[in-house]
Amino acid sequence: MLPFDTNAEAGIIGTLLYKPNFITHSENLKPNFFYSKEYASVYWGILELYKKGIDKIDEFNLITQLNSNKAIADILGKDKNKYIIDLMEKLSYVKRDSLEEYLHLCNIVISLSFKREVYKNIKD
After folding, report:
1. In whole angstroms, what is the distance from residue 104 CA to residue 121 CA?
2. DSSP letters of 15-43?
3. What is the DSSP letter of 64?
4. Is the CB of residue 20 less than 8 Å from the CB of residue 49?
5. What was the pLDDT predicted at 2?
6. pTM attached to this predicted model
């Protein structure tokens, strides 16, 4: 079993949904570092919105951004609108209020991503 921490991933996404400016402090974190393809997709959407200068992440903005990329939209499936609305509500409980906590979660996800990559390389 490959190492992952969905709680850390959820905490990152939850934090960014409410404090998208924190993304500027985690430039080393890439969408493909997430184990969960769904969280990776949402992270990509938030990152793209922030690059466009949109610092208010709401359901409409996020769903519109996710729909702009067919591969991402396919990952989230046909019920992606409901998924995003539910996700935004649920992740409000795991969001972090301090930059230090957010960066700690980012470090966990990055570290586990590298461990998965090393495991795959050794296995090959």
Report:
1. 26
2. HHHH-GGGGGG-TT--GGG-SSHHHHHHH
3. H
4. yes
5. 86
6. 0.93
Give the whole-angstrom CA distance, residue 47 versus residue 64: 13
Amino acid letter, residue 10: A
8 Å CB contact between 29 and 12? yes
Tokens at residue 79, please?
């019920």
Phi-psi region of 29 (alpha: psi -120 to 50; beta: other; left: phi over 0): beta
- Both tokens of residue 43? 């992270």
CA-to-CA dists, residue 113 to 20, 31, 92, 119, angstroms: 22, 11, 24, 10
How far apart, in whole angstroms, are the C-alpha atoms of residue 59 and residue 61?
Answer: 6
Residue 82, CB half-sphere, CA atoms under 13 Å: how many? 3
Q: Given a cut of 90, is residue 124 above it in pLDDT?
A: no
